[in-house]
Amino acid sequence: MIADKLKNSVQYETVYKPLKKAFTYLKKNITAHTKDGTYKIQGKDIYAIVQSYNTVQPETKRFEAHRKYIDIQYVVKGKEIIYVHPVSALNLTEKYNRAKDAAFYKHNIESSILKMHSGTFAVFFPQDGHKPGCIAEKSGRVKKVVVKVRVW
User: Fold this and answer.
1) What is the average pLDDT value for the chain, to the nearest integer?
2) Which of 1, 18, 142, 149 could link 78 by a cystine bridge, Cβ 3.0 to 4.6 Å?
């Protein structure tokens, strides 16, 4: 997992070459006015999902993890908590669904907490269980982009 401000993303572009294209897209194309929806960046290999939602209590959500895609979760506007825990230490609740590229896991009280706010991003690799969209201080509206980057 990587977490930082988008303005510092150049430091992570060599970790995995396709990340550079994803970060460049975020910097050049995403604003608070970008409409919710799915945007192709490089076909099915790299694409962005822009979404707006209200944060919720963490107990109402499950951890998720992906195999085919790395997630870059970038908060455009608002605040949220993302809980993070290694997949190897989580209890599976829903086995991996290839079509959804997701497996789901129970809440873990020993999870790390990422406090996300406007201008910050987190990169989640297949081994990183993550539970986004959770209340930071109180329930609030968040505009976020999840860039999906295929694992080669």
Assistant:
1) 96
2) 142
8-state DSSP, 22: H
CA–CA dist 150, 152 (Å, integer):
6
- Return d(Cα 102, Cα 67) in angstroms, integer: 7
- Which tens digit of pLDDT belongs to each residue from 34-65? 999 999 999 999 999 999 999 999 999 999 99
Going 146 to 148 to 151 to 152, the CA torsion angle's sign is: negative
Q: 84 vs 45, 97, 117, 132, 150, CA distance in Å?
A: 24, 20, 16, 9, 20
Do residues 82 and 74 lie in contact, with contact meaning Cβ atoms separated by under 8 Å?
no
Which tokens is 51 given? Answer: 């979404």
| Overall pTM surpassing 0.85 (yes/no) | yes
Question: What's the CA angle centered on 91, arms 86 and 96, to 5 degrees?
Answer: 85
Is residue 19 a contact partner of residue 6, using CB atoms and an 8 Å limit? no
